[in-house]
Amino acid sequence: xxxxxxxxxxxxxxxxxxxxxxxxxxxxxxxxxxxxxxxxxxxxxxxxxxxxxxxxxxxxxxxxxxxxxxxxxxxxxxxxxxxxxxxxxxxxxxxxxxxxxxxxxxxxxxxxxxxxxxxxxxxxxxxxxxxxxxxxxxxxxxxxxxxxxxxxxxxxxxxxxxxxxxxxxxxxxxxxxxxxxxxxxxxxxxxxxxxxxxxxxxxxxxxxxxxxxxxxxxxxxxxxxxxxxxxxxxxxxxxxxxxxxxxxxxxxxxxxxxxxxxxxxxxxxxxxxxxxxxxxxxxxxxxxxxx
Length: 291
What we know:
Layout (H helix, E strand, L loop, with lengths): L13 H8 L1 H5 L1 H19 L4 E8 L4 E6 L7 E7 L16 H6 L3 E5 L9 H18 L5 E11 L1 H10 L16 E5 L14 H4 L3 H6 L16 E5 L2 H14 L4 E7 L13 H12 L3
Helix pairs in contact: 5-6
């Protein structure tokens, strides 16, 4: 882009940007806490008694860990790598495995990595760690019941942004990975152009300027190989997330999946139910990369 400062929404004042991107304020404290309690309860229920390998260190440099759920002896299973949200500064893998039982019933394993939260880690480091988790699945997945040739990445909110950073090109070769290591992707309510974040409250933690934000924006980076993707967003999401998802879907050459009657926080919980539009879309993506 010729002018890094010419970004959609630049003309809005700071209050309007906060309305567009502060989804926690939009939900209100009571609803937000209820959503967070559901994340934990549904994740605990999903993995209770499920075969897996929790707590594996995937990145020696940071010591960060991931959980593998829903693996069986015999044929390695496709791996859905789910990257949690929390504006890069909250949540964890503990509350992010709510889809594991649904996927297990359909022959798919779930991989949920942690990453070091901001401000302890820079956003560049968080991106590196998430890419390292994908590299771990490719290199070591088979010994843990995962098929390294069927990796699908997804994530919600900040995790949607981090999903986007695994979809773009240029990072795979330095890690010794094939260009198509990520066979398909499903970001939910993601951020794909981070320049607006330089003017909202979360920048107190991630400390981006406009050039750094642009360098970490999937919409502005070379796509490389365009993997199949579903770009999902909630009907009642924050305005900034709705617009960014629609724009990134166009950029990627797909139609956005706008999930009715859902908000920023509960849209991804639909992955716990195989009959929802989100789950059908994810299972369809995974089926499309079966070998």
